[in-house]
Amino acid sequence: MTKTVDSTSLRPHPAQPAPRELARAALLDAAERLLIEEGHAGITTRKVAAEAGVNHGLVHYYFGSIEELLFQAMERYTERLLDRQRALYATDMPFIEKWRQAMRFIDEDLEAGYPKIWAELHAVAWNRPQFQQRIAQVHLQWREIFGEALLRAKDELDFTDTPFSPDAFVALVATFNAGLLLERLVGLDQGHRELLDAMDGWLSALAARGKESR
């Protein structure tokens, strides 16, 4: 039997997080695990509370609804990955090497389960405008980070005489990444390696042309 915690009965040590934060973190961690293992349809207030080891009343006390808990879990996970991307694009390595590392992150993220959470919460949001806006914000954050990285690399990549403006290229990358993730989640990877190799070759050619023009 899972031992539950009543956060109101705990007294924090001065060096420890407050009980409220411990309980919230436990619920967010549990929601993250259950979204990966079972999907949102299998998550109930009691199940996530049992997984977290807290009283089930704390779900609504801290989050208001199970859906809000799930979205905050997704947004928290997203922020960790956005921080990783910011750190990658802040390095001094050439843009093409940053691109290659970012593409390797796709496999790492799939193995860790983030795209499953991302896709599960898209389904929750289809008919709920308040959640659609939050999903859209996640997409916009990814685009903003990549767009800023591309802007900083303007002296490395020459988009002249290509079909794409930098803004169009950001949209292309965002949409093909989303497609890659969704197909990989159902076990389909046909043509993915060829697509990534083609993109790598094209960007390498842009970088070489940019170097010649400097």
Highest CATH level, the class of the largest domain: Mainly Alpha
Number of strands: 0
Q: Identify low-pLDDT runs.
A: 1-10
Task: Please describe the biggest sheet, giving its number of strands, its sense, and whether it closes into a barrel.
Answer: none
Domain count:
2
What integer value in Å does the Rg equal? 21 Å
What is the 3D form? elongated
**Mean pLDDT across every amino acid position:** 91
What is the CATH fold-level name of the largest domain?
Answer: Tetracycline Repressor, domain 2
Q: Based on helices, strands and strand pairing, what is the structural class?
A: mainly alpha
Strand and helix order:
HHHHHHHHH
Distance between the amino and carboxyl termini: 68 Å
CATH superfamily of the largest domain: Tetracycline Repressor, domain 2
CATH architecture of the largest domain: Orthogonal Bundle
Please tally the helical runs, counting DSSP H or I stretches of 4 or more residues.
9
Query: How much strand?
Result: under 5%
Describe this structure in words.
The chain is mainly alpha-helical. It has 2 domains: 1-64, Arc Repressor Mutant, subunit A (Orthogonal Bundle), CATH 1.10.10; 66-213, Tetracycline Repressor, domain 2 (Orthogonal Bundle), CATH 1.10.357.10. The chain has helices at 19-37, 45-52, 57-63, 66-89, 95-112, 114-125, 129-152, 166-185, 192-213.
Question: What brief labels describe this structure?
Answer:
2 domains, single chain, 214 residues, disordered N terminus, Tetracycline Repressor, domain 2, Arc Repressor Mutant, subunit A, 0% strand, mainly alpha
